[in-house]
């Protein structure tokens, strides 16, 4: 029998979250961001689950766009990093992929070649990673038009949208608006997941919900359920051993935790080899028998220990929720000093993904 460590993917929750994004987008349309293997949930699985709701997808790179076509999905796909070599442009045109252009070398490839995929421009409104400076936008558009390339959209990315106290998103929005307003009517997009929860944020034509689709909060200090989001992944394992500890006994590598009372310790069959964060601190919660129990000791590659002293009736074989519908992945991320994006995308290949929909999981 295989090890009972798995990730349950809740397709109904995924659809709920996309519909919430679409609702919060107002008059704008929402494209589903499914990059990084659907944030660890499986790109084909996620895209198929949203196929009746989403009429546009966004990915980081060509390989991800091709995965959507191989899965039989025909919706337009936006490549947010564009292409990484000129020879990829004909394939993008043939497959109907929209290519983001953010740098001079990509512009030169289009001018020198024969391929004419649809193009969006990336505007650097202040994040200073990728994109043309606002003052360059009109000249770049003119060069593309002279080369016979149609610019169908423009986008930017916010640096501090997750911080409700920051004014940077409003400043970046204004910069982007001034740079793109003089262009011929095109699609414009600024809103990442966090922007959906910023009162008064301009949405323009398209929003790009990503992490919120998977049930995690895009806002600092907030958990997904507080924002009406539902967990799209439950990471689950089982208790494989119980042990009685006396006061003063230590657990695990480095003896980072020592009991102060008679303790029932449980070993759970999951560790950093599965993607659970090694740096999760003592006290990080897991869910067992409807009760929150604290992690004790250092997470090892294949196992971790929890304190079951206050969990009545715990026994070998009991399911353990590491994060999901009862234990927020946002809370676990905070305990590990990271963000939920990293946890979700770090779940390793040895953890099977099992689809759940229409409430067909009873725990």
Automatic annotation (TrEMBL):
Domain of life: Bacteria
PANTHER family: ALANINE RACEMASE (PTHR30511), ALANINE RACEMASE, CATABOLIC-RELATED (PTHR30511:SF0)
Residue stretches making up the Alanine racemase C-terminal domain: 232-356
Catalytic activity from the UniProt record: L-alanine = D-alanine
Protein name in the entry: Alanine racemase
Residue ranges of coiled coil: none
Entry keywords, A to Z: Isomerase, Pyridoxal phosphate
GO MF term list: alanine racemase activity
Source organism of the structure: Marinobacter lacisalsi
Catalytic residue positions: 35 (proton acceptor), 253 (proton acceptor)
EC number(s) given by UniProt: 5.1.1.1
UniProt cross-references to CDD domains, sorted A to Z: PLPDE_III_AR_proteobact (cd06827)
Gene3D superfamilies documented for this protein: Alanine racemase (3.20.20.10), Lyase, Ornithine Decarboxylase, Chain A, domain 1 (2.40.37.10)
Pfam family name, one: Ala_racemase_N
Family of the protein in this entry: Belongs to the alanine racemase family.
Cofactor(s) the protein requires to work: pyridoxal 5'-phosphate
Biological pathway: Amino-acid biosynthesis; D-alanine biosynthesis; D-alanine from L-alanine: step 1/1
Function summary: Catalyzes the interconversion of L-alanine and D-alanine. May also act on other amino acids.
Residues bearing the modification N6-(pyridoxal phosphate)lysine: 35
SMART domains, per the entry: Ala_racemase_C
């Amino acid at each position: 029998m295989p090890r009972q460590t798995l990730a349950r993917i809740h397709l109904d929750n995924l659809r709920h979250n996309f519909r919430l994004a679409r609702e919060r987008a107002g008059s704008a349309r929402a494209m589903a961001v499914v990059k990084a293997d659907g944030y660890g949930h499986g790109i084909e699985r996620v895209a198929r689950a949203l196929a009746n709701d989403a009429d546009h997808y966004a990915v980081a790179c060509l390989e991800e766009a091709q995965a959507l076509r191989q899965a039989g999905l025909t919706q337009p796909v936006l490549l947010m990093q564009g292409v990484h070599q000129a020879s990829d442009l004909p394939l993008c045109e043939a497959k109907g992929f929209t290519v983001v252009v953010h740098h001079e070398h990509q512009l030169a490839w289009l001018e020198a070649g024969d391929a004419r995929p649809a193009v969006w421009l990336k505007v650097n409104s202040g994040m200073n990673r990728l994109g043309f400076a606002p003052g360059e936008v009109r000249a770049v558009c003119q060069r593309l038009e002279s080369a016979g390339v149609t610019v169908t959209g423009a986008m930017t990315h916010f640096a501090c949208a997750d911080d409700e106290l920051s004014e940077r998103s409003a400043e970046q929005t204004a910069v982007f608006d001034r740079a793109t307003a003089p262009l011929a009517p095109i699609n414009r997009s600024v809103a990442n997941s966090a922007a959906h929860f910023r009162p008064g944020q301009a949405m323009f034509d398209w929003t790009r919900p990503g992490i919120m689709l998977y049930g995690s909060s895009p806002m600092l200090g907030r958990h997904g359920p507080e924002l009406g989001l539902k967990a799209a992944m439950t990471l689950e394992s089982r208790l494989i051993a119980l042990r009685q500890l006396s006061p003063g006994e230590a657990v695990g590598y480095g003896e980072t935790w020592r009991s102060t009372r008679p303790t029932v310790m449980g070993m759970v069959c999951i560790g950093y080899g599965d993607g659970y964060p090694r740096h999760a601190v003592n006290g990080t919660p897991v869910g067992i028998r409807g009760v929150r129990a604290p992690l004790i000791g250092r997470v090892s590659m294949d196992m971790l220990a929890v304190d079951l002293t206050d969990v009545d009736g715990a026994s070998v074989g009991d399911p353990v929720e590491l994060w999901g519908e009862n234990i927020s992945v946002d809370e676990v991320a905070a305990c590990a000093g990271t963000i939920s994006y990293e946890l979700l995308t770090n779940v390793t290949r040895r953890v099977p993904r099992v689809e759940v929909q229409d409430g067909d999981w009873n725990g």
